[in-house]
Write a structure and sequence with these properties.
This protein is of the alpha/beta class. The protein folds into two domains: 165 residues, Spore Coat Polysaccharide Biosynthesis Protein SpsA, Chain A, CATH 3.90.550.10; 70 residues. The protein is 37% helix and 26% strand. It is built from seven helices and eleven strands. The strands form two sheets. Strands 1, 2, 3, 4, 5, 6, 7, 8 and 11 form a nine-stranded mixed sheet that branches. Strands 9-10 form a two-stranded antiparallel ribbon. A hairpin with an 8-residue loop joins strand 9 and strand 10. Helix 5 packs parallel to helix 7 and helix 6 packs antiparallel against helix 7. It is globular, with a radius of gyration of 19 Å. The N and C termini lie far apart (62 Å).
């Protein structure tokens, strides 16, 4: 049975080569939906043999479903441009695709890397994502931001890990955080959410929860930076809904 790898990307020329390299010899086809990148993302994908379609970004759920609709494999692996399939995970995926199984989907444990350091604490050491599934039995939710794949029938878990190199530099983190919080604030404003003064309490609470309650401090400087910036992001999505009184 064939395996399709489906990817959505925008301005991912720094991350995409490692992702594509990890799929070599694993995926029978690679589909990339490029959200009008201004860098070499599309060219890199085509050079690796991927089928590339360009489409204006209209939400993560819609973009991922568009990529899935282009796929032809019996099985599909949804992977982000900043993720890498480890050799051990590739071997497990090959076994799933080649053998009969009652499960229609598989969760993968994801190792999160921040500025080159793997995060083991702060709530990041047990991150499971549903990414491998029978194409005919799955569909992405329509959520603009927090999309997820919906699989009919039984799901299971694989043992090996997917590497997520989420933020290679602090500058990259700040840029992505600003884009995501813009979208999140827009959605909250449409739902009638407005920033209230007491919401500043979210900042110290998030830092406390990530660093102390979830032991993020044990990840050292990387863990402290990640926890602090994540807390700021959680507050910023509300702060951006604030409008000065008229």
């Amino acid at each position: 049975m064939r395996l399709s790898a489906v990817i959505i990307a925008r301005n991912e020329e720094a991350n995409l080569p490692a992702c594509l390299a990890s799929l070599a010899g694993l995926a029978d086809e690679i589909v990339v939906v490029d959200s009008e990148s201004t860098d070499r993302t599309a060219a890199i994908a085509r050079a690796a043999g991927a089928r590339v379609a360009t489409h204006r970004f209209d939400g993560f759920g819609a973009a991922k479903q568009r990529a899935l609709d282009m796929a032809t494999g019996t099985w599909a692996l949804s992977i982000d441009a900043d993720e890498v399939v480890t050799p051990a995970l590739a071997a497990e995926i090959r076994a799933v695709v080649a053998s009969p199984t009652e499960a229609n989907g598989f969760e993968l444990r994801r190792d999160v890397f921040f500025v080159g350091r793997r995060l083991r604490f702060g709530g990041m050491g047990n991150d499971w994502v549903l990414r491998l599934f029978r194409r005919s039995e799955a569909r992405f939710s329509a959520d603009r931001i927090h999309e997820h794949v919906e699989v009919r029938g039984r799901t299971a878990r694989l043992r090996s890990t997917l590497e997520h190199h989420a933020y290679r530099t602090l500058t990259e983190h700040v840029e992505k955080m600003n884009r995501y919080t813009d979208m999140q604030a827009e959605l909250k404003a449409k739902r009638g959410v407005r920033y209230r003064t007491w919401m500043w309490l979210r900042l110290p609470w998030e830092v406390l929860a990530r660093l102390v309650l979830r032991l993020g401090v044990l990840d050292g400087t990387a863990g402290i930076l990640f926890a602090t910036m994540s807390a700021y992001s959680a507050w910023l999505r509300y702060a951006k809904t604030w409008r000065p009184p008229t």
